[in-house]
Design goal:
This protein has about 525 residues and is α/β, with parallel strands linked by helices. The protein folds into 2 domains: about 290 residues, 3-Layer(aba) Sandwich (Aminopeptidase); about 150 residues, Glucose Oxidase, domain 1. About 35% of the residues lie in helices and about 20% in strands. It has 14 helices and 16 strands. Strands 1-10-12-11-13-16-14-15 form an 8-stranded mixed beta sheet, sandwiched between helices. It has an 8-stranded mixed beta sheet with strand order 3-2-9-5-6-7-8-4, with helices on both faces. The structure holds zinc ion (ZN). Zinc ion (ZN) binds next to helix 9.
Length: about 525
Amino acid sequence: MPRVVAAVFCFCLLLTGQERIDSDVNARIRKEAMENSKILRTIHNLTDVYGPRLTGSPQFKAASEWAAGQMREWGLANVHLETWDFGRDGWSNERTAAFLTAPMKHTLVAEALAWTPGTNGTVSGACVQLVPPERPTQEEFTAWLESQKERVRGKLALAGKHTAVPVSFTPLMLRMDDTLVQRRYDPKNPAPAGPPFGPMRPSEAKPEAGRLTPQQIGEQLDRFLKENGALVRINDSARPLGQVRALQNRAYDVSKAPPTLVLRNEDFGRIARLLGDGLAVEMEVQIVNRTHPEGRTACNVVAEIPGADKQEEVVLLGGHLDSWHAATGATDDASGVAVMMEAARILKAIGVEPRRTIRVALWGGEEQGLLGSQAYVKEHFGTAESPKPEFARLVGYFNIDAGTGRARGLSVFGPPEAAAVLRQIVEPFADIGVAGAVATRSRRLGGSDHTSFAVAGLPGIGVNQDPIEYFAATWHTNLDTYERIVEDDVKKSAMVVASAAYHLAMREQMLPRFAPSEMPPAASAAKPPAPAKP
Ligand SMILES: [Zn+2]
């Protein structure tokens, strides 16, 4: 190109902020992603072979080592596990069996609550239902507990009222409709985030002065049941269609809780109704749980494609390797982990040489509060207010953690210019429904691991996805298995992430960031983090 023309051309590039898109590389990425995919094999290993992957459990450790070995086999460099302190023993469940034995015999569907003890062998006894007063004061609750003392010894205690889960007449939204998603990513006037772009959560009841919170009631009920010889505590899953969402006892200490089951809503309801008829209901339960002191040291798995002339600068890709324990954690978040591993594999396989380092980090401890990613950010980057040298060298962190659904857009912590860059980089994937990118100024922790970066003032990039069955069925439930993966969607997400990572690794400049004077203030430490995360 003649020099004068070249000069004019470059000037135009600067004016319009036009990104240089390598359509040849994009074509090779698409081909590798669709024709030589290893992504289902990765998800199979993470779920069927190593799941569930509860942080601190032996399976989590084994999955970490497997992922590291697999990435080494694909030719990634500097593959290693970075440890961090989980601060509590690991826990795993080996066996849960629950039966109705009177007034008729039947098998029940239940999961153990994590970080609770197992039963002392097989236990059996009568069921009682304990329905505490609503929003009690401490005085009222203590009096109520006192009145229940004689009821619980040697019994299996249903905790609380049965939740009526109505039949839903609303069809499930599996994909975001195109007009909706375009409004969400409208560069001029983006529609606010929130459902259907994020989880629908019940707003947590505000604590009322003088009244106990549900957490305080739960803790006191645990202590009461233990002290008064109840055999098992039984919680209502309160979900439709046999879904059981069993998370953890908040104390993370098996010595502080009775053996605890989460029973599917339908079985809880049946027992509650039979008890309401005045019938004697009996159950038999066996729960085998283990604790793992070695699980106090948890890890993240890290691997990379080293960069060339800008090797010190890093484009980071991640998802969380840990899962809940009631299923094999396929959509939460083996699919996200597999997308990021696959994106790196694709780039390695097509033989590109990125200028910057592309690094994959698979987190532990996400489900217990984004622990692995926060530990990594603290160790490597610090914060905008107290940065370490690596702080300036992180281009961006891509996170995927909302199920099997295809990538539909990006949300980046940064100025509008950062979204403008990403919007152009993903534009070649408009044909598969990628609608663009928006910027956010939020430094609140919550959602998923990209917020650990945003909290620190770093460009965390959330990949927003089609909802498919995630919040409706698989998220944190016993239904989160390999069968719920949509092959075409995970392949396409990997394709989009591979291309976006590559282009960020190649452009002349870093992704635009907030200037120090424009950095939004860190979220107040007084505010608690947002509840429940994907
Ligand atoms: Zn998740």
